[in-house]
Specification:
By secondary structure, the chain is α+β, with helices and mostly antiparallel strands. The protein has four helices and eight strands, in the order E-H-H-E-E-E-E-E-E-E-H-H. The strands form two sheets. It has a five-stranded antiparallel β-sheet with strand order 1-4-5-6-3. Strands 2-7-8 form a three-stranded antiparallel β-sheet. Strand 7 (119-120) and strand 8 (123-124) form a beta hairpin. Mean pLDDT is 91; it is low at 1-7.
Length: 152
């Protein structure tokens, strides 16, 4: 049975198992891997809403990271099962911000965000003017995710 909208979390979640090579000699995940996990969740999110990154690139559109931030709360360890949630936290028709939360068994390990711009064939573009289908999908994502974001 599905939870009501008031109890749903925003965005999209991927489940990962911490691999040995992502850890240091003490079995603790190296901080750089959280950023990699953000990317895994973000690209999977885009795929789930019909905007596979590969398709965007093949059409000449890129969405580079122009800023990233991560706050570490707890350490993940080798062989932990973690969940990485990504959601659209801001979109103004020109810039896009994804928020992230990494958890283990419901315990928050880190939170972060990435900020993105849009390029089409190497030139800056505003999706609201140049990429109407992309713009509409991102607006819909922001609206849906904003309605449930307060649960975090």
């Amino acid at each position: 049975m599905e939870k009501s909208a008031a109890f749903r979390l925003p965005g999209h979640t991927v489940t990962l198992q911490v691999r040995y090579y992502e850890t240091d000699a003490m079995g603790i995940v190296h901080h750089s891997n959280y950023i990699r996990w953000f990317e895994v969740a973000r690209t999977d999110y885009l795929r789930s809403v019909g905007l596979p990154y590969r398709d965007l690139e093949q059409s000449g559109t890129m969405c580079p990271v122009i800023g990233i931030q991560c706050d570490y709360v707890q350490s993940a360890r080798y062989d932990d099962t973690i969940e990485v949630r990504a959601w659209v936290s801001a979109y103004n028709g020109v810039r896009l911000t994804f928020a992230y939360q990494v958890t283990r068994a419901g315990q928050v390990l880190c939170r972060g965000e990435s900020r993105h711009a849009f390029l089409h064939k190497g030139r800056p573009v505003a999706p609201q003017r140049s990429l109407p289908q992309v713009h509409q999908v991102l607006r819909d994502c922001l609206q849906r995710d904003s309605q449930t974001q307060s649960d975090l």
